[in-house]
């Protein structure tokens, strides 16, 4: 046991290892273990003869929901890195928790794993217990289990599971630095800050869509009120029809902006989340590479080959991070422009709303429910404009932060 082990968090039946230790393993495309480091060998409790050539599920613990692996394999199969909290078991039946960073490599997959310790990890343990219990009791399909996990990410305010795991990786790296007495890493700090801005954009866009959908019922209310106040085709009826026509145009634009497959907000979120996860992965790979300098010889493992592959992967993830950030910056700029355009279109609705207020004043004693209907318009318009301005501001924050990163990195 290393001196960095936090015994206060160790559970009964849990195998100890230190925050300074990183697990490493590499498998072929079928999940057969082809290489691993001494930490993996020691903590798992298996001999090298049992590990090399065995399926990686030899260390799988049934308390890790099958949906976790469905999400992982789906991402890796598409050529994307992914992270996950994983509960593993040892040869002696004990267990240990890791946060795993997994990446596709030539002819297989690679995983670097660190010791988790954040409040998010505590919540994930409870979530896994709940979902794995349902899996066994209800014989859940892994895709159903995966959807339950995606819902957890959405309920926590994240636009995707990748974004959720990017946030988790940033939190775990920062907590690990603190446990080891290291100064805060500027790249990790940027990762966390950018992820927070990204998720605020996601929250704002969903609130914006809900506000605008609620707004759609108001022209109908105005028309009902108008039928009681004036002859058919009167000014209030005309105002309600004009408002409905204009709001429908904006509504369609807004839906393409924040809803539907591959919308603009989704493109920003997807590329930014990918960039953030790659940034954290790159840091883990760099440290893992350093650790291989003192690796003991193991029959069946060519450490020179592993080092070469890791160095190449470290460079590849750095380039991929830049590419994803450049795309995210472009999408963020487009998002800001679209927000500003919709904000300008809202001015036309404001004009129609003011005309409604004028008619309300003209009718005075006979206004009936018109005044309260116009009051509703005032509330929704103010809310929508605030959401749009927030999205514009956050988009600019994301773009500026990523541009700063791109300028500071070689």
UniProtKB/TrEMBL annotation:
UniProt keyword list: Receptor
Transmembrane segments: none
Database matches in InterPro entries: PAS (IPR000014), PAS-like_dom_sf (IPR035965), PAS_fold_3 (IPR013655)
Protein name, per record: Aerotaxis receptor
Native organism: Rhodobacter aestuarii
Record-annotated PAS fold-3 domain positions: 37-106
Keyword DNA-binding: no
UniProt cross-references to NCBIfam families, sorted A to Z: sensory_box
SUPFAM superfamilies: PYP-like sensor domain (PAS domain) (SSF55785)
């Amino acid at each position: 046991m290393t001196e960095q082990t936090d015994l206060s968090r160790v559970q009964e039946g849990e195998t100890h290892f230190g925050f300074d230790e990183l697990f490493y393993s590499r498998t072929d495309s079928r999940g057969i273990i082809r290489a691993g480091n001494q930490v993996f060998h020691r903590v798992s409790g298996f001999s090298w003869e049992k590990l090399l050539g065995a399926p990686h599920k030899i260390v799988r613990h049934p308390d890790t929901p099958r949906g976790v692996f469905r999400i992982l394999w789906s991402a890796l199969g598409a050529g994307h890195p992914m992270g996950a909290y994983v509960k593993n078991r040892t040869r002696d039946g004990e267990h240990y928790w890791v946060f795993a960073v997994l990446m596709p490599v030539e002819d297989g997959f690679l995983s670097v794993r660190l010791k988790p310790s954040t409040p998010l990890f505590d919540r994930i343990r409870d979530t896994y217990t709940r979902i794995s219990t349902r899996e066994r009791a209800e014989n859940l399909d892994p895709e159903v289990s995966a959807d339950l996990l995606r819902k957890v990410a959405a309920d926590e305010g994240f636009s995707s599971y990748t974004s959720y795991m990017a946030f988790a990786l940033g939190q775990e790296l920062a907590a690990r630095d603190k446990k080891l007495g290291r100064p805060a890493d500027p790249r990790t700090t940027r990762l966390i800050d950018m992820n927070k801005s990204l998720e605020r954009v996601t929250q704002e866009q969903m609130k914006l869509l809900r506000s605008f959908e609620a707004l759609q019922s108001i022209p109908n209310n105005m028309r009902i009120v108008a039928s009681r106040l004036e002859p058919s085709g009167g000014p209030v009826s005309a105002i309600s029809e004009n408002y409905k026509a204009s709001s429908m145009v904006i509504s369609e634009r807004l839906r393409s902006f924040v809803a539907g497959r591959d919308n603009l907000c989704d493109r920003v979120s997807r590329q930014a989340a990918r960039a953030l996860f790659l940034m954290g992965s790159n840091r883990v790979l760099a440290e893992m590479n350093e650790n291989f300098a003192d690796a003991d010889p193991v029959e069946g493992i060519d450490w020179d080959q592993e080092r070469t592959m890791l160095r190449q992967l470290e460079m590849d993830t750095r380039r991929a991070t830049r590419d994803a950030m450049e795309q995210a910056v472009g999408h963020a700029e487009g998002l800001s422009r679209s927000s500003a355009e919709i904000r300008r279109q809202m001015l036309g609705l404001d004009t129609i709303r003011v005309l409604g207020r004028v008619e309300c004043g003209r009718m005075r004693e006979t206004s009936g429910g018109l005044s309260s209907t116009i009051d509703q318009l005032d509330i929704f318009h103010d809310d929508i404009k605030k959401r749009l301005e927030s999205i514009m501001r956050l988009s600019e924050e994301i773009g500026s932060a990523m541009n700063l990163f791109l300028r500071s990195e070689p």
